[in-house]
Prior knowledge:
- This protein is of the alpha/beta class.
- The protein contains five helices and six strands; from the N terminus they run E-E-H-H-E-H-E-H-H-E-E.
- It has a six-stranded mixed sheet with strand order 2-1-3-4-5-6.
- The longest helix has 10 residues, at 35-44.
- It is globular.
- The two termini are 19 Å apart.
- The mean pLDDT is 88.
Amino acid sequence: MRILFDQGTPVPLRRSLPAHEIVTAFEQGWGTLENGDLLRAAERAGFDAIVTTDQNLRYQQNLAQRRLAILVLLTTDWRLIKLHTGYVEAAVDGLVVGSYVELEFPPSATPKVEGLTPAR
């Protein structure tokens, strides 16, 4: 899976996802793009998913019809995330086009998953 990390996603997390191609928004030259523009750029570039720490994304953007999965980490604290990289890896492995998943830290019983209507 080709995954985009937005600006707030801790870059060291990429080492915990070796089965996936990870690219950061900064590496793409998209460090200044706002949410809607970033999502559109990621879709145009063929990314399958975006990992973000922006907890307001779902309220700021119409996520229906998106052609990529969205994983929201509900913390930016790398010290906490690195204790639960298996949890993040499992969530990434379960992503499907159009899904929206929020991961709490420390992990709760089940991540919050919402299926969005995938674009055709």
